UniProtKB/TrEMBL annotation, chain A:
It is a multi-pass membrane protein. The chain crosses the membrane at residues 34-56, 105-129, 149-176, 218-245, 269-290. Residues 101-291 form the ABC transmembrane type-1 domain. GO terms for cellular component: plasma membrane. One of its GO terms (biological process) is transmembrane transport. This is ABC-type dipeptide/oligopeptide/nickel transport system, permease component. It comes from Natrinema pellirubrum (strain DSM 15624 / CIP 106293 / JCM 10476 / NCIMB 786 / 157). It is found in: Cell membrane. InterPro entries: BP-dependent_transpt_permease (IPR050366), MetI-like (IPR000515), MetI-like_sf (IPR035906), OppC_N (IPR025966).
TrEMBL record, chain B:
It is a multi-pass membrane protein. This is ABC-type dipeptide/oligopeptide/nickel transport system, permease component. It comes from Natrinema pellirubrum (strain DSM 15624 / CIP 106293 / JCM 10476 / NCIMB 786 / 157). GO terms for cellular component: plasma membrane. It is found in: Cell membrane. Residues 99-312 form the ABC transmembrane type-1 domain. Pfam families: BPD_transp_1, BPD_transp_1_N. Belongs to the binding-protein-dependent transport system permease family. Keywords: Cell membrane, Membrane, Transmembrane, Transmembrane helix, Transport. PANTHER family: DIPEPTIDE TRANSPORT SYSTEM PERMEASE PROTEIN DPPB-RELATED (PTHR43163:SF6). The keyword Transmembrane applies.
UniProtKB/TrEMBL annotation, chain D:
Residues 4-252, 349-604 form the ABC transporter domain. The keyword Translocase applies. It is found in: Cell membrane. SUPFAM superfamilies: P-loop containing nucleoside triphosphate hydrolases. This is Oligopeptide/dipeptide ABC transporter ATPase. InterPro entries: AAA+_ATPase (IPR003593), ABC_Ni/Peptide_Import (IPR050388), ABC_transporter-like_ATP-bd (IPR003439), ABC_transporter-like_CS (IPR017871), Oligopep_ABC_C (IPR013563), P-loop_NTPase (IPR027417). Residues 322-343, 665-699 are annotated as: Disordered. It comes from Natrinema pellirubrum (strain DSM 15624 / CIP 106293 / JCM 10476 / NCIMB 786 / 157). Its main location: membrane. The lineage of its organism: Archaea, Methanobacteriati, Methanobacteriota, Stenosarchaea group, Halobacteria. It holds the Pfam family ABC_tran.
Length: 306, 331, 597, 699
């Protein structure tokens, strides 16, 4: 019974701890106006990603905006019928913008997480074990470095039907190398730290040492690169979609831009260009700004004074 | 054999191995692609089974896969990229002018940005917390995290469509007929077209260099050796120069790596600006499923990365007086 | 899959299966697979699964809208649709293997090759068993018979009769959804040039015909005609090109044995006359006094050489020409005989037209013609090769002695559209990669005409400037929404007719193409622009109510939410009967089935 | 004449939280030609004073008030440019850590030349000549002026900074801990060099260090800083011989000395919080003599009559009594447990000819060619035994293989040769699947308290982890943890359980590390320099703790350190290590008083004396230890040995070459020793002639 309450107590204190951490992060971000602005953008974006499709006044693809006389409103500037104007086939830009947030969020989130998780694992294992494991894994990263991402992704997407999960997987498969390298070099220095040796001296197994002693100490940098991974994934997805290799069944911001560009309406239809372009630019920049704010804290070398 | 030579040899061996593997991966991926450039013909109903087989035989597509692989390897590694299916020309004849167009755009842009942004970055890092620093960080973060095609689109809309200062597309005005490279690249017309993509490329890359230089200097700023320099009575600028010199190595390395990734990095830029470079050609070739061309283009890109990696390592080992060249200084 | 809506408990008459799978219903020689790639089975009383419909939005910018139109039609019938927007290459890749389509409905456009306007074969023969292009597995015994016969009937009138019958049968049977023939829309500068010739499928500015270029007359001092295009030529090797821009643009340099007028009449070119002299023998007289651009004389040897080199090295773009030829005999300096492998009706109407004849003296020493990229292609055509810079520009200049530049000759061939005058000196194709830029260049005067298809909005925008006009021409290449005939639902003719009545192509054309397309009367792939068109085909008029009635009478029902269900009970038995191979082209009353409504 | 006059200097650092009041109203003067010392515990503001003088404070540091008069000018009022002119020309600086103070991408010669060019208009070749000259002065090879810093050892780099400081013959040299991080032997040499040169050039020296001994030997006057305040200042003789401030007394007490019988006594508690301006005496909370008055205000320095001596203490008048009381450990709340030489138990660990050779990484190509691999013989045939309740000390220069020996004994490194027996079983037995048993019984404590604890675990987790791993006392884990924490003096243990390492002081961290080792009730403990990063008083605490553990818990301890003084204090027996070998071994007292090996003798003589009145003869060793890869044949110490004869080069002496069972040495020519090292050793060193004034510190 007493153990029970104890456990409960431990749980509460843990939740408390978690809450404090979250609050601390918030307080920390509050202090950096840039990062704070970034956070607001990210929050808005997540909101759009989750609820955007429900907020959209119309179906982004199926609905055709028609004027008073029943004719299709093709390529019209923002008006009462369509707040963000229409596309060349009378689709509502606002609805497309709102619906387009979701694939962007999905790829960004999962691509980023995949990148981070994969890179982190490889980095930790490679750095911790060293020797041939390290050599092997590092050559593997070299290899992914030398296989150019864009062309390879384009190739893969020509023979597999592009869908959002495939794109996410490809992005993660190519981008993990970045966190892997950074985490590895971080692990190399953590591994040399005395408490790791000390863990070994007290009989901890490799797995235990890696999980409890090495990994937690490189976690911040892992998180940082996961955040960057999110931004990279979003940018990569948008770029692929822009080149015409996106998921054709989903309206995404990158695909919207492709359509304006390919339809030759960029010169006139600013209302069609700006929402997706600003959307992508804002979200990627915000993630980087937040990441940078953390980097200043994590990287003790940049911290030296102040 | 000196230590350095040994290190060089090891890195070289790794690079060769990497090239082999990369090339093989490309081969596998390409063989997995269904269909072929002849599809359009088949769909039109013009060809019968037999003729299709004949065409396949003509391009060696009927041979056993391992034989295709061997042929492929030997030809790539001897820089004989073969014949473009669609273009009835040696692949190299197609790619060479594209390559030059790409290089003409990207190398000067990269060099410019590396020098300018590094200088600004060093200055910003030295004046940490200043307005200049904050501004440069925000603006370069914006420029480097925003996908390049979006920046390009903004620039086109503003400078080409609205202000009409520069043309939006292409490498020269459409009726120009220059003869030879000199005539092509040394002309006002070219410059006029060059300005916009060049600027966008410079801005896009500025972020990394600026932050690298800034972080380097910030890192060095609190260091003991600078304190000693200060104690010696060096002026601010002299100190900054020393801090800068000490953060040069990562910048140099990064520059080399970037140089290697140059072609792939700006595929989007070339597409947006219709710059007839190798990146845009690759996208076209993929769409047209022109295997040999795709192979060669991807190979060139991969090779550039591998060579740049090699160069970066070697430069690093060469320029850093403290690096030990004994081990694998690669990672 | 999975269950949608409220299905009924299956109730099947004795001996009738409860579920009918998607399957090949005939022994297809050309198909090497156990089962079709599509799985859309039918179960008695069950609500229809989501119906897969595929298209590629890369095909045409408005393709997705077109797909949505089809979707709306199906929605109106109570059928939920799964739209699948696929990359173009994958859509085409299905045809590489002839297993069949992966969706119940698959839509794609046909390119406006002149061949398709000259002869009905390219569009009709694919509906026969044995054709590699028959990937929807369509089969109609009567049509099969008619088509096989007409393909060998060299008598024009007789053949026209057969072709007309074939169109009737196909339309009546709803063998596919032939929704529309999209117009070719573009914009040209009329202040500088007069005499643009509107050719079907090509408009006045595309490259399939040279009429515009030989007919244009300058309104200013400038005699160089500049055409802006968005696709570039890939090589200078016409015969072994893979069918891109070069296959068309380079025909300006070469001549065929015959040519086709804007009315799609066959007119003499390098051959001046001749025709079938036996079932499988064709003798042609060749034009005398023709010189290659390098000054050598053109003779019958060149023709023989051309056919032989094509055959030996499998020229991909010239297959239609040499395919039926068994051998060529030189009968004299300017006389040849072709021995064909079978009687071939289209030989004189289609195959010899715009065939490319090569100079023997230039090509005979080439080791591998398929990998040969001539520095300077030499032909007999109306234009001589000047320069080419890949991806940028292609220039050709007037071959003054060519018969097409003879004003009288042109007046004969072009009728009203012919213009007299000094003509043009040079044609230059300039690559402008982006439509926006094309329009800008046309407006600024950097180019004289746009050589690619524009959307109506774009053409209107271009026409905003002085002297620029929007032009459009009809096309004979239909948008073909193929129905996969291995699927039980498609095999029910009642369903096909209901579908045909539910799809409102005309509405779509008004809304999205601003009228720039022709909607055929019924599902007839042969356009009124061609000489083979039969205007009296069955047209199931658009009427959703009637369509639903047809389904109801055929035994289909709807659940509470309006989802369509397969027939059940007796009606299911009738359905299964209708989809049997010998019945798929028969309606309910022909099979003496009752009205199940 | 007064050269430098610091008056009421106050420096604060801006931080994210509260400002740090690092230096509070410090005043002192340095006369021309005088060596001035600045001493105090870590964090007392020594470096801050130096940086304020030079105008090198980091961006967040400001001089709040006070003046710094130099040569009639107020340094705080100068413009940047004016200050630059004075820097180096008049005031040169030897920074705290020579390792990082040289620009890594500039050759050492250029860096010195740069200092010359900045202030003097001379030609390149002139500057180079001067650099060569300077190299020669500090004892570096003038041909190496084009080498980069990383090509030099730590000691040599320190010499480069000294050469740089001398370049313009400044009036004042500020040396901030010029020897911290260096070996005793090297430290001794550097100090000697500075003094010699500075004497020759007749400039003043401001020497900053926390080693009272160094100041005692080198300086004329000093200030003792604590919490940013001057606690006591005046002539070295007065202050160190007759301290009048309790802090000075405490500080002096806590320095162990080699030949002193008494155990050193630590000042309890920890340095003050500098986040507010001091309102009470900064030392009040640690001072055993504190009265109410002390809590009210910080005392002003009081001039003691007739002597060059000031002290900031409210009870300065009672100085003599306090001094007496301060000698008694009980005053400092530390029970004097007397010398209870407990009985030592049976042998628990024994090594016989233990070897650890590292293979030098070799390129594949050479391996294929079958070239012979080079080995670093980090441990090369060590035979030792440790009993229960015994502390065996291992001493030696940096890089001699002490840590490797420790780790090999802990089986963290696999021995490459020889025998290791623990608890009666050979090490192979443990490696054969019984590692966990070994890991439970043998524990190791590492050097760096700041790094030996996982920063992401609480004390509870840290100390509890070994229990989890070994499934030991898991049912009463919490009790085990608390017990152990209290054993190492962290009371009440509950207060610490949920703290993270960064919330603990260095001393507390090292205690947690020890607790981690003790929680499994080990039989054997290996301590690798556990105190070297700690402040004096913390160090003393830890040493006492370990000593106590050995006596009460019946465990055997190996204590590794290069600090002979603390070894003498804690150990029962001592082994002296040189290049992977034990060259002398025996009872502590015997080694301290009668070293047999010349190397031991020079080690002993290199340790500074905190009493300025005692004279010490230096035995300066030539050069640095040879490369452990290419060991000379014969006695490894021969190349540096002042007494080496031909026989020494021929064969390697065995450990029992000289002495008896309780004191052995590997030397053919053992010292005949009766306490002092023979004087002729010094003159044998021709590169560093004994300077005339080494022993004449103050008067
Ligand atoms: N840049 C800084 N920002 C904030 N606080 C600082 C800074 N530099 C030093 N301090 C604080 O000022 C106090 C005095 O530091 P200082 O470096 O002068 O001590 P010290 O006596 O030289 O110590 P040590 O012997 O460890 O070198 C310390 O409490 C330290 O934490
Ligand atoms: N893993 C290793 N590989 C190769 N050589 C090593 C390794 N570890 C130590 N050495 C070498 O072995 C020698 C002894 O090193 P060790 O760390 O034991 O010295 P130490 O006496 O503890 O020195 P310090 O006082 O500086 O801690 C050194 O020359 C060192 O370079
Ligand atoms: Mg200090
Ligand atoms: Mg050590």
């Amino acid at each position: 019974m007493s153990t029970d309450t104890k456990q409960k107590g431990a749980m509460y204190s843990r939740i408390d701890e978690l809450w404090t951490t979250v609050r601390d992060q918030f307080v920390f971000l509050r202090r950096d106006p840039l990062a704070f602005g970034g956070m607001i953008v990210v929050a808005t974006f997540v909101f759009l990603g989750l609820f955007g499709p429900f907020l959209a006044p119309h179906d982004p693809i199926e609905h055709t905006v028609r004027g008073g006389d029943g004719s299709v409103l093709r390529l019209t500037a923002p008006s009462a019928e369509a707040f963000f104007g229409t596309t060349s086939y009378g689709k509502d830009v606002l609805s497309q913008f709102l619906a387009g947030a979701r694939p962007t969020l999905i790829v960004g989130l999962f691509g980023g997480l995949g990148t981070g998780a994969l890179g982190f694992t490889v980095g930790v294992v490679s750095g911790y074990y060293g020797g041939w494991v390290d050599e092997l894994l590092m050559r593997l990263t070299d290899l992914t470095f030398s296989l150019p991402f864009m062309p390879m992704a384009l190739l893969l997407l020509t023979f597999m039907t592009p869908n959002i999960w495939l794109i996410t997987a490809i992005i993660a498969a190519f981008l993990w190398k970045m966190p892997a390298r950074v985490v590895r070099s971080e692990v190399l220095s953590v591994r040399e730290r005395t408490f790791v040796k000390s863990a070994r001296a007290s009989g901890a197994s490799d797995l235990r040492t890696m999980l409890y002693h090495v990994a937690p100490n490189v976690l911040p940098i892992g998180f940082l690169y996961t955040a960057y991974g999110v931004a990279w994934a979003i940018a990569a997805q948008a770029s692929l979609a822009f080149l015409g290799f996106g998921d054709p069944t989903m309206t995404s911001w990158g695909r919207m831009l492709r359509q304006v560009f390919a339809s030759g309406n960029m010169r006139v239809a600013w209302w069609w260009v700006l929402p997706p372009a600003i959307g992508i630019a804002a979200i990627t920049t915000s993630v980087f700004l937040i990441g940078r704010a953390y980097e200043e804290v994590i990287n003790p070398e940049i911290q030296t004074d102040q | 054999m000196t230590k350095f030579q040994r290190f060089l040899l090891k890195r070289l061996a790794i690079s060769v191995l990497l090239t082999l593997i990369a090339v093989s991966v490309i081969f596998v991926v390409l063989r997995l692609l269904p269909g072929s450039p002849f599809e359009a013909l088949v769909t039109s109903g013009n060809l019968n089974q037999e003729q299709i087989a004949e065409i396949r035989a003509m391009y060696g597509l009927d041979e056993p896969i391992w034989k295709q692989y061997v042929n492929y390897l030997t030809s790539l590694l001897t820089f004989q990229f073969g014949y473009s299916i669609l273009r009835s020309q040696p692949v190299w004849a197609v790619l060479e002018p594209r390559l030059i167009n790409s290089l003409i755009l990207l190398v000067p842009a990269l060099v410019t940005t590396a020098i300018l942004s590094s200088l600004v970055g060093m200055y910003a890092g030295w004046n940490r917390g200043s307005r200049l620093e904050k501004f440069s960080i925000v603006s370069t973060t914006l420029l480097r995290s925003t996908p390049v095609f979006i920046t390009a689109i903004f620039f086109i809309i503003v400078f080409a469509y609205n202000l009409e200062i520069v043309p939006a597309l292409g490498m020269r005005s459409i009726r120009a007929t220059p003869e030879g490279y000199l005539d092509t690249f040394v002309s006002l017309d070219f410059l006029h077209h060059y300005l916009l993509p060049f600027t966008v490329a410079v801005l896009y890359y500025s972020g990394d260099f600026l932050l690298l230089a800034r972080n380097g200097v910030v890192e060095k700023r609190g260091s003991e050796f600078l304190k000693l320099h200060r104690a010696k009575g060096l002026t601010e600028m002299q100190q900054l120069a020393r801090a800068g010199r000490n953060s040069m190595l990562p910048i140099l390395t990064y520059f080399t790596l970037r140089l290697g990734m140059i072609f792939q990095g700006l595929i989007l830029l070339e597409v947006v600006f219709s710059w007839p470079g190798i990146g845009r050609e690759l996208v076209l070739a993929i769409q047209q499923q022109d295997y040999p061309l795709v192979q060669a283009a991807v190979f060139i890109m991969a090779l550039a990365v591998i060579l740049a990696n090699l160069l970066a390592d070697v430069l690093y080992a060469y320029f850093d007086p403290t690096v030990s060249t004994g081990g694998g200084g690669s990672a | 899959t999975g269950s949608r809506g409220q299905s009924l408990d299956p109730d099947v008459p004795d001996g009738v299966p409860e579920t009918v799978e998607t399957q090949y219903w005939r022994e297809w020689e050309t198909i090497d697979a156990d089962s079709p790639p599509l799985d859309y089975s039918a179960t008695a009383g069950a609500v229809l699964d989501r119906l897969p419909v595929e298209f590629s939005s890369e095909d045409d910018p408005w393709m997705r809208e077109h797909a949505l139109m089809v979707k709306r039609g199906l929605d109106d019938l109570g059928i939920a649709v799964e739209l699948n927007d696929r990359p173009l290459n994958q859509l085409y890749a299905q045809s590489w293997a002839t297993k069949g389509l992966e969706a119940v409905i698959s839509m794609s456009t046909h390119g406006p090759d002149p061949q398709r306007g000259l002869d009905p074969n390219p569009l009709l023969m694919r509906r026969t068993e044995g054709s590699l292009s028959n990937y929807d597995n369509y089969y109609h015994p009567k049509l099969q018979e008619l088509l096989t016969e007409q393909a060998q009937t060299t008598d024009r009138a007789e053949r026209e009769e057969l072709v007309a019958r074939a169109q009737e049968i196909f339309a009546e049977d709803v063998g596919a959804l032939i929704t529309l023939f999209p117009n070719i829309v573009t914009a040209v500068n009329r202040d500088r040039w007069a005499g643009y010739v509107e050719t079907p499928g090509n408009g006045p500015t595309m490259d399939s015909f040279v009429w515009t270029e030989v007919n244009l007359q300058p309104e200013t001092d400038n005699r160089t005609y500049v055409k802006g295009v968005s696709t570039s030529m890939n090589s200078l090797n016409l015969p072994w090109a893979a069918g891109g821009a070069e296959a068309k643009r380079l025909t300006f340099i070469y001549d065929g044995l015959f040519d086709a007028t804007p009315d799609l009449d066959v007119v003499p070119a390098l051959a001046t006359g001749g025709g079938f002299v036996g079932e499988t023998t064709v003798e042609l007289e060749l034009r005398e006094g023709v010189e290659w651009h390098d000054g050598e004389a053109f003779t019958a040897e060149d023709v023989k050489f051309t056919v032989e080199i094509y055959q030996e090295y499998t020229s991909s773009s010239q297959v239609p020409f040499y395919e039926p030829i068994d051998s060529v005999e030189v009968l004299g300096d300017h006389e040849v005989r072709f021995n064909l492998t079978n009687p071939d009706a289209s030989f004189m109407t289609q195959r010899v037209v715009r065939s490319v004849i090569l100079p023997k003296h230039r090509w005979e020493d080439i080791d591998n013609p398929s990998q040969h990229n001539p520095d300077k292609p030499v032909g007999t055509g109306p234009f001589e090769f000047d320069t080419w810079e890949q991806g940028t520009r292609f220039a050709a200049s007037r071959n003054d002695g060519h018969w097409m530049f003879d004003d009288d000759w042109r007046a004969d061939a072009l009728g009203d559209q012919a213009e007299r005058g000094p003509g043009i000196e040079r044609v230059i194709w300039i690559n402008v990669s982006n439509v926006d830029a094309l329009i800008g260049s046309l407006q600024s005067g950097a180019i004289d005409a746009i050589g690619t298809n524009l959307s109506t909005l774009q053409a209107e925008r271009a026409a905003n400037a002085d002297g620029i006009e929007q032009v459009s021409a009809g096309s004979y290449a239909p948008l073909d929404a193929k129905l996969m005939f291995s699927c039980p639902l498609v095999r029910d003719k009642e369903f096909r007719i209901a579908l045909s009545k539910a799809v409102d192509s005309q509405g779509f054309v008004e809304d999205f193409l601003q009228g720039e397309a022709t909607v055929p009367a019924g599902e007839n792939p042969i356009s009124p622009l061609t000489q083979w068109h039969n205007p009296d085909t069955t047209d199931y008029e658009v009427d959703v109510e009637e369509a639903r009635t047809i389904l109801e009478q055929a035994g289909y029902t709807w659940d509470g939410d309006g989802n369509l269900r397969y027939p059940n009970g007796e009606a299911w038995g009738a359905f299964v009967e209708r989809i049997q191979p010998e019945n798929t082209y028969k309606r309910r009353d022909e099979l003496e089935q009752p009205d199940f409504s | 004449m007064t050269l430098l006059e610091v008056d009421n200097l106050k420096v604060t650092y801006e931080t994210d939280d509260e400002p740090v009041h690092a230096v509070n109203d410090v005043s002192f003067t340095i006369d021309e030609g005088v060596n001035y010392g600045l001493a105090g515990e870590s964090g007392s503001g020594k470096s801050t004073v130096a940086e304020a003088l030079l105008g090198l404070l980091p961006g967040n540091g400001t001089v709040e008030r006070g003046t710094i008069g130099f040569d009639g000018k107020d340094l705080t009022a100068l413009s940047e440019a004016e200050r630059r002119d004075i820097l180096w020309e008049d005031i040169a600086y030897i920074p705290q850590s020579a390792m990082d103070s040289l620009d890594p991408v500039m050759s050492t010669g250029d860096q010195i030349a740069q200092a010359i060019h900045t202030h003097r208009n001379v030609t390149d070749s002139k500057a180079r000549d001067r650099v060569r000259e300077l190299f020669e002065i500090v004892g570096l090879d003038p041909d190496r002026i084009d080498d980069y810093p990383h090509e030099f050892s730590g000691g040599m780099r320190q010499r480069v900074t000294i050469a740089m400081a001398l370049a313009l013959e400044p009036d004042l040299i500020i040396a901030d801990e010029p020897t911290t991080g260096l070996d005793v032997i090297v430290q001794d040499k550097i100090i000697d060099k500075i003094l010699e040169i500075q004497e020759r050039m007749d400039s003043s020296l401001l020497l900053i260090t926390h080693e009272i001994g160094v100041i005692a030997e080198t300086c004329d006057e000093l200030s003792i800083l604590y919490g940013g305040k001057v606690m006591e200042q005046g002539s070295v003789d007065n202050v160190l011989v007759n301290p009048t401030n309790p802090y000075t007394m405490g500080l002096k007490n806590s320095f162990p000395e080699i030949d002193e019988g008494e155990d050193p006594v630590a000042i309890p508690g920890s340095p003050p919080n500098l986040n507010g301006e001091p309102t009470a005496c900064v030392f009040e909370d640690r001072c055993p003599f504190a009265t109410e008055e002390c809590g009210a205000s910080h005392p002003d320095p009081v001039d003691l009559p007739n002597r060059n001596h000031r002290s900031a203490c409210h009870r300065v008048k009672e100085a003599a009594q306090l001094r007496q009381a301060a000698d008694d450990p009980e005053t400092w709340d530390i029970p004097d447990d007397g010398d209870d030489d407990s009985d030592r138990g049976e042998v628990i660990l024994e090594t016989d000819n233990l070897e650890k050779h590292y293979e030098q990484s070799q390129p594949l190509l050479d391996k294929v060619r079958g070239e012979e691999t080079d080995y670093v013989k980090a441990v090369d045939g060590v035979s030792l035994s440790v009993r229960r309740s015994e502390v065996l000390g291992i001493a030696g220069e940096s890089g001699c293989g002490k840590s490797t020996l420790g780790e090999t004994m802990a089986l963290l490194e696999e021995p490459t040769g020889g025998e290791l027996t623990f608890d009666g079983e050979p090490y192979e037995y443990y490696q054969d699947g019984n590692v966990q048993e070994f890991r439970r019984k043998v524990q190791i404590v590492f050097q760096d308290p700041f790094d030996s604890l996982n920063p992401r675990q609480t004390v509870r987790k840290l100390v509890g982890e070994p229990l989890t791993i070994h499934d030991y006392r898991t049912d009463e884990k919490e009790r085990a943890i608390v017990e152990t924490l209290e054993k190492v003096g962290l009371t009440p243990a509950e207060e610490y359980l949920d703290q993270y390492p960064h919330e603990l002081s260095g001393g507390q961290r090292q205690r947690v590390a020890v607790a981690k080792a003790l929680v499994l009730d080990p039989d054997f403990l290996i301590c690798d320099e556990p105190a070297s990063m700690l402040d004096v008083s913390l160090k003393v605490n830890l040493l006492n703790l370990l000593r106590g553990l050995a006596d009460t818990e019946d465990i055997g301890i190996v204590y590794i350190s290069h600090d002979l003084a603390s070894l003498m204090q804690v150990s029962d027996r001592l082994g002296i290590m040189y290049l992977g070998r034990i060259i002398e071994e025996g009872e502590v007292d015997r080694i301290a008083t009668r070293p047999k090996h010349p190397y031991t003798a020079s080690l002993l003589s290199a340790a500074p004396e905190k009493d300025p009145t005692v004279d010490r003869t230096r035995v300066l060793l030539e050069g640095e230890p040879p490369d452990p890869v290419d060991l000379p044949s014969g006695c490894a110490f021969a190349p540096r040995c002042p007494k080496a004869e031909d026989s020494c080069w021929e064969a390697e002496p065995a450990i029992d070459e000289a002495g008896d069972d309780s004191h052995r040495a590997a030397c053919y020519l053992p010292e005949d020793g009766d306490g002092t090292a023979p004087t002729d050793t010094a003159t044998a060193d021709d590169e560093f002639p004994t300077s005339a004034n080494t022993d004449s510190v103050g008067d």
